[in-house]
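Help wanted!
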Amino acid sequence: MSGASAQRTVASWLPAAAPGPTAFDRVLGLCPDLCADYHAFLALFWTRRSVDAVVLELCRLRVAQLVGCEAELRLRYEPARAAGLDEAKIALLDRWPTAATFTDAERSCLAYAEQFVLDVHGITDAQATEVTAHLTPAGLVALTEALALFEGFARFRMMLDIVPEALVLAADGRPGAR
Amino acid sequence: MSRGRVPPPPDGPDAATYGVLAHQPEMLRAFRRLYGTLWSHGVLDPPTKEVARIRNARTIDCCYCRNVRFAAARQQGLEEELVDLVNEGWEDSALRERHKLAIRWTDAFLGDPHGVDAGFRARMLGEFTPAELVELTAGLALFHGFAKIAVALGQQPEAMPVTVLATPDRPA
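Answered by r_m:
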């Protein structure tokens, strides 16, 4: 089997795959316009910086932990690395309430992210106000949209059993620097 | 409209239609393009997408999403009597098999995404093409996430009638 053929067959349990640089792209790429629009939308969260890239990455990974998405947990986003997020801090993510390395802004956003995933109706005005104090109202909107995208597409990966890959991704979710 | 958790965005057409999402106009435009592609330029029939969207809305309990209907699904036969069947007892209802599978797929997406076994996968592939299945699942990712956004930001009304809206399309 050629490299290109192998790349097409190991994306998920689906009996078809599109060309693409990652298993995720080879699956979502079966709907090419949807795939392109998804990447364009995703890139805005990392490039517009309404939410700090480290906060965004910590929230993405915490969402993945809560829903149990191994494929998402293996990914890293370059903008967060460039902003200083390292593996030592990520290793403490499930202990964010007590680990000293997390800032007040990170704690507020992680608490909000957890509530979003576990029981969105349980989000309180006080919780939203606290996040807004760190991010601005526009930042709260951006964070909430990002959480929606992170959780939704983590579930997408799990439903289709997309093959986990350890990758460093650029802002648009496509492979970046190693 | 219930009390929101975000102050109103600056006045404008986006604010009137999309509420606090207009705080992020570029993201709103990108989302509208993505959602428009899903609904108006996809491969999966609108009634099946609508069944999944309604099932998600009823499970997440978003008042706005529960009561909105998209015109394309209605025009293609998904009348309110059928939407009413997307509820308890759907297994034994008069819904088409395709729509029953979409409900079961939605319930797995929301409740146990790791629990889709080989038999269920085979049944889905017997009814849907791989591209249709990808579109259905990506649609669920968006339905699920954006129902939660409405709840999280306090943007859902306390009550509203069933309202048929134009099918989302890409912004001009």
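OP: Thanks! One thing I noticed: The longest strand of chain B covers residues 68-70.
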